[in-house]
Queue: 4 jobs
Job 1
Amino acid sequence: MGRMTEKDASGRWQVKGIPWEKLQAGQVITEEASQILYGCLWRLKDYEDSGLNPEQVTNLQYGAENMAAQVCDSLCRYREESTVQEELDEVCRGCPVNAVMGRIFGMRMRRRMYGEETQRDNN
């Protein structure tokens, strides 16, 4: 599931698909904007129902990434066959652990391990 927010060209946050100016006092809310806003509220409700705060969500994500990385580094048979990082990264792309992490978090879990920024794949 993708983000519901984005930055505009000037760096201001806005609801994805609705320019900030369209949400100012006096503006008519279109049917399309109404549907987008309702989707945002639905996702906010689901998030609030989880009972987790943003820090807990982040810690859960990093904890799962670190646990999966530990499993991979400890059990992966390819670890001993190659020391070339590009080859290991290619193996990881097809790894079942990476596939599970992708389904859970929508990301490639090995990015953070090697200093790359962790981002959602479905943005």
Note: Helices lie at 31-50, 54-75, 78-81, 85-93, 96-105, 110-113.
Job 2
Amino acid sequence: MATDADENDMLTYTLWWGDSSDNLSKTDITATGRSGQSVILEKSGLSNDTRYWFKVVVSDGIDEVASGEGNENTYCLGSYCSGGGYSYPTCTGCSGTGKVDCTASGCVNGYITSGTKACTNCDSGYTTCGGLITLWDFGSMSTSANDWICDYCHLVMKIPTVTVVYPACTNQSACRYGINLSNGFRNAAGYTHPECASAFTRLGTDAYPSYGATCYRSVKCRVCDGTKEVPNLIICTSCKGSGQIQHSACSGNGYRTVPYYCSAHSQRYAHYYCTSNSHHGDNISQYHK
């Protein structure tokens, strides 16, 4: 803005421009305005990251005056980069489940032992065996006095009135699993040969528990081992009986959140980086001096 003694005079502003203080040239960029009125002069087509010198000459048509010289460096162009981000690898501490074994003191599978209580499976430390009666010693191909045995308490029982018959295998040429290996008789043991898999045939009557029946013998209680007491288990308040709690390292998600940076500019978030030869930085505003 310039002033003139005659306030009604129209003043003409002309821009002088150059790439050094001693190389200024007059341009055709002008603006007009009355004394004391501000004007704007614009220069386009400039290069990035380049210093330019300039001055303004003002004339009222008779006299003219020049401003002092000034200089400015144009901004660098910043190029956009989306930056880094996050990866989500499976948490190895919980194998991706988000849960780990409960760490509460005394917790075993979600329960804590607090003394003992009476066993509800028995009255005196003894119960009915409950094992299965099975054939123990096959003896010969056909017999009237086989031994039977309980698979739990191992009580051996004689069945004198029973005759056991082993039908011949229908595929004797391939059978090697029967009682008589040369003839291939089917038996009660259920060997791997498909033709010998069916059980024996029982004939007659018996006064004792039969094959596959439940053993009636009184034996030591399996639950309390004859002590009449069992551990008193209470639900763990930390895991609420599940035996597992949230894995704190992954906040129960089963994966970890791992940040990674833009490898070129070492920035995590979206950013602009300087593209000029002087390279003013990797995290800048879009344009800068």
Note: The chain has a mean pLDDT of 76.
Job 3
Amino acid sequence: MRNPQKTQTAKRQGRKPTPIVEFPVAIEDHWDETRCFRDALDLHMRRHGDTGWRLHAAIVRPGETFNISTLASWRRGVRAPQDALSFEVLARIERRYRLSEGYFKSKLGNAPRATRGAAVLGLSEAEMRRLAWHLPDDFRRRPINEQHEIVDWVRRVIVSGSTDYRRFQAAALKQRYGLKLGSSAGDVEPAATTRAPQGAISGITGPCVLVREMAELVAFKSATLSTFGYERSGVWGTAFGHLQEMGVATESKLEAWSGYLWPDHKIDDEPELWLHRAVRLTWEQADILLWNQIAHEIGVMPQAPVMSKLIDLERGVSVNAYDDRGLDITSIAKESISGLYKRFDTWLLDHDRPRMAKALEG
């Protein structure tokens, strides 16, 4: 047996890891400035002898989800900071390397989108995307009451007031497209939508080179098979085309027309017309449309960007599943749905009971 007193602890081979300090000493005090973000990040990491692992360990706090692969992608130029946490991390790197505040952000240029991740309790994601352009970079670090004060001010002064942004927003709503690609783009059908633009599309006509490139891109993304030697992720197509892939073909339609989504939309200042198709369905296809209607509302896949209603022409009954919580059933004659009204009494919404009782019990 081995004597415990003589047992020796094995020493780890190799160089000891460099201790992580808050402010590392720069190897070089002078450097040639660069305008590119990725080059600037790589430059100062090398100046201070930082690897990706060491920098990540020094700036990321416990519990944060910032991944080391993000730093590597910044350094290679594959990605750029876009969310609020990323800009916080950039500020920590600036402090670590004793750089001026906003040094790295100034090298990112004009952001193509608003900063993500600045959420406020009670606001939808859609509204936060609109407000995010006008929020300070340290919005997430501010107290909750101060965040709400900032949001209220942005709503009152910038979004609803008579500012340049509000005037730009109003003008942009009237002109949906700023650049149009003429018919010289070829006979390739672009990625279609169920909405039909009202009136002629205004804007600046794109140059011939851009028109040709867009035609090639649309052809590549919408072809059934990709070009030999090329790979692609995803296929473009029309909304009805996506629905056909799910098993519901709409080409053999009973009727087709353009109109408002709901009757009340015609009183809007700038209503949008939708393409409507009436098709005959099997029970299996009706199930697919029900799934698509619910999936479209709650954001699960597969789905097609199409809104649908199921209509029984013989009974005069219409079914509209608005999401996973329920559906609306209407009819021309109350006899068609009075049985459902009594059978599913406990399922009915309380705020609609007076209106339903007036229509079905009178």
Note: The first strand starts at residue 179 and ends at 180.
Job 4
Amino acid sequence: GFRDLLMEQKIVLEYNPLAYWCCCNAIEVINNFGDIKLSKKHKDDSQRIDPLAAAMNALARVLVKRSAEPSLADAIASGNWTM
């Protein structure tokens, strides 16, 4: 999802040399199940991709939190509930 949002310009990096550097060091690897993971271009490379990976993990957590069902406290606070 990160790549798609980046291409749709819903994620904006502006001028961020660290983000660009990490993007240049990263590739995506797809396993037999179709899962995509971030990896370095060369296995033994000392170039870092950690800030990019952290941004992707943070985005995933936000998207999961946004799509989660409302809690009981949220339902009570909204006033749209009965017993």
Note: The mean pLDDT is 81.
